[in-house]
Amino acid sequence: MKKLIALLLALLMVFTLVGCSSNSGNDKPAETGTDTEGNTMPKIGIILVGDENEGYTYAHMLGIRDAAAKLNIPDENIIWKYNVPEDQTCYDMAVDLVENGATLVISNSYGHQSFMQKAASEYPDVTFVSDTGDTAAVSGLPNLKNAFTQVYESRFVSGIVAGMKLKELDESGALVPANYAEDGTVKIGYVGAFPYAEVVSGYTAFFLGIKSVYENISMQVEYTNSWFDLTAEATVADDLMSRGCVIIGQHADSTGAPSQVEKNDAENKYGFNAYSVGYNVSMLDVAPNAALTSSSNIWERFYEYAFTCLLNGEDLKTDWTGGYNDGAVEITELGKACAPGTQEAVDNAIAAIKAGTLHVFDASTFTIEGQAPTSMLGDVDADFTPETECLIDGYFHESEFRSAPYFASRIDGITELN
Amino acid sequence: MENNNIKEPLIRIKKNDDVTPVQKAIVIALAIIASLIVSALFIYFVTKLDPISVYISMFKGAFGTARRTWITIRDSALLLLISVSLAPAFRMRFWNCGAEGQILIGGLSTAAIMIYFGDKVPTFLLIAIMFVVSAICGALWSFLPAVFKAKYNTNETLFTLMMNYVAIQIVEFFVDFWDKKQSHSVGIINMNTEGGWFPKIFNQQYTLNVLIVLAITVFVYIYMRYTKHGYEAAVVGESVATAKYAGINVPRVIRNNVLISGAIAGIAGFVEVSGISHTISKVTAGGRGFTGIIVCWLAKFNPIAMVFISSFIVFLSKGASQIASDFGLNEYASNIITGIILFFILSSEFFNNYSISFRKKNKGGNR
């Protein structure tokens, strides 16, 4: 009996499949591989770790669409693969895109990199870009590229926004005893994704940004071990607030932290109000009272560059990076909770960064183990042994030797909780 | 008046034992047609797309190119292996929800061998070693729940589920242990030397995957159908009391079958790591241990039926991601379509097992 059912199921499947395939012979509207007449533009394959529901990926999608629209690249020349996990699927998708005619394949998550590298070694005629990756230069593959914005610049500026708020809170007497650490510094919290250089570089920039306005602070960093986890980010934000942190920064991709801060403030859960500085997108929708601003990437700049190279038949840089000077980073709209004068302070800082008079990792602004640093090595070739001197002319040269951040020193005043 | 009115329900549901295979086939066919129609309505009214082109795109996602077809075959084979691994346990009504963890442990042991011996031992010997070691590790992972079930009649569902979490943590530990870049990923193991990777056979990357899976499927089919041990498992599943009365050593049967179950799941981890992804992470099992449960149930524990059901499920998922890619549809929308199709097929089971009769019109003039 069971055999018969199995047999019938099999027959049915065969029939349904044959039915589908005979249909596909008749008309082919969904054929992504066919070139319409006069459309000689190259095809671009996009591998995304999420979809429009996830802020980080959504920012990439917008950037790609805007860049394509600007360069008159028709929709059908871009093939999208959504929700691609950081495993063999990424390689499968990369190869699938190549087989569908893509000559430029871009993935947007760090974990995609080794699978992109595998594909790149097999298809030397196709350019593969691993956004936020770090091994292009050392892979020895001329067709593997990396791209990363200098988001530490906008994190520094978002720190200035938080610093202005802190100054206002202090001056108006709004800080409570719980906000002070034993050494008398005001506590800042930071929701980090993973203990990678990317995150370390980011929170250090944020910390130094606050410090440039309000000197007397200490920061606690707690990791969620995930790039996107609403619940974990909310839990960590709540934990940081329970420890007395009055500013909650983040380097994780969900709205979990600002939502939790907004909720805690509304319930007056810990007897003081905390404020949130987000990432990727404005958090004002989920935290209208608690959100100050968010640091964000303008990926459009990179995509515009990459697509232009593709259209002109030029090779991409092995490492692309862009900061305020390239219009590739920004902070989002200031929340109503921001202190007066914030906009001015922000504008001044951005102008100074652009002019090269302000360096985010200025060695005179921080200490390591109580000492002002005289030499700082960065692990530029991604082999986990720092080898390149990055402390030149008094500041740490981040994202200059390769696009992905390599500032991984733990500076004084910042504690990692886990 | 009220006295005459015998209450009769509007709908009666009767167990149907004598359904012919032809009737069953008709019911399933109707279910599939109905599901395609309902999905078409969803596609047309909610997403404003042409249902036919969406279905074509689904098909292309799974079979559009030779490579896609092979990937569909490869993934179907893996899901099949996992479903087959559950069969010996499920046959005894031992609800093994721990395939996920057993896959991870099998995969982890494979990854360890690839990392430490990948470039030192000849490929075929290495593959044989990994096969055996992953089977042993998978079996060991199922050993604890099996012994506790056999000895103390503990709840195997909870026990195996918790073993999954332990496995995830162990994998996380080793990922960080092996990862020198602090990137929380081991990357592709032996990317340059391909040490411990399945070799191409007949110029096809995934031939060995398919061969291993088919061999094990046939083995389990024969084991469950024609061997004394397989029969004992079935008796234990029907009634433990009967089994005891028949002189079957129930704890031994439970232990052995669960060990076989765990061993095969461990081999599935080996196939995934050595034959497909060449990496290990906590998502290596990717929920397939649970999807396998659906497949196993739908197939009524029959390994041959699992071939078709696992292929169908993989076909649906490949189709769903292709729809998302072709039409810019959110993957949730694509999943709704596959959900509708699965729902109809599952409900058709009901109509196969039961018949429905409506209340006959009242003869008397009660009103």
Which pair of protein chains has the largest interface, and what are the residue counts? A-B, 53 and 56 residues
Strand proportion of chain A = 15-25%
Q: Which CATH top level class of the largest domain in chain A fits?
A: Alpha Beta
Q: What's the average pLDDT of chain A?
A: 87
Describe the global form of chain A: globular
Q: Report the sheet with the most strands of chain A, covering strand number, pairing sense and barrel closure.
A: 7 strands, mixed
Helix content of chain B: over 70%
**CATH architectural designation of the largest domain in chain B:** Orthogonal Bundle
Any idea of the CATH topology of the largest domain in chain B?
ABC transporter involved in vitamin B12 uptake, BtuC
Helical content of chain A stands at 25-40%
Beginning-to-end CA distance, first to last residue of chain A: 58 Å
Q: What does the secondary structure layout of this molecule look like, with pairings?
A:
The complex is a heterodimer of chains A (418) and B (367).
Chain A: H1 2-26, E1 43-47, H2 55-70, E2 78-81, H3 88-99, E3 102-107, H4 113-122, E4 127-131, H5 136-139, E5 144-149, H6 151-171, E6 186-192, H7 197-211, E7 217-223, H8 230-242, E8 247-251, H9 256-267, E9 275-279, E10 291-297, H10 300-312, E11 319-322, E12 329-331, H11 342-355, E13 377-378, E14 388-389, E15 391-392, E16 395-396, E17 414-416
Parallel strand pairs in A: 1-2, 1-3, 3-4, 4-5, 5-11, 6-7, 6-8, 7-17, 8-9, 9-10
Antiparallel strand pairs in A: 10-12, 13-14, 15-16
Chain B: E1 11-15, H1 21-46, H2 51-63, H3 66-91, H4 99-117, H5 123-152, H6 156-178, H7 207-226, H8 228-238, H9 240-245, H10 250-277, H11 288-298, H12 303-327, H13 331-353, E2 354-358
Antiparallel strand pairs in B: 1-2
Helix pairs in contact in B: 1-13, 2-3, 2-12, 3-7, 3-8, 3-10, 3-11, 3-12, 4-5, 4-6, 4-10, 4-11, 5-6, 5-10, 7-8, 7-10, 8-10, 11-12, 12-13
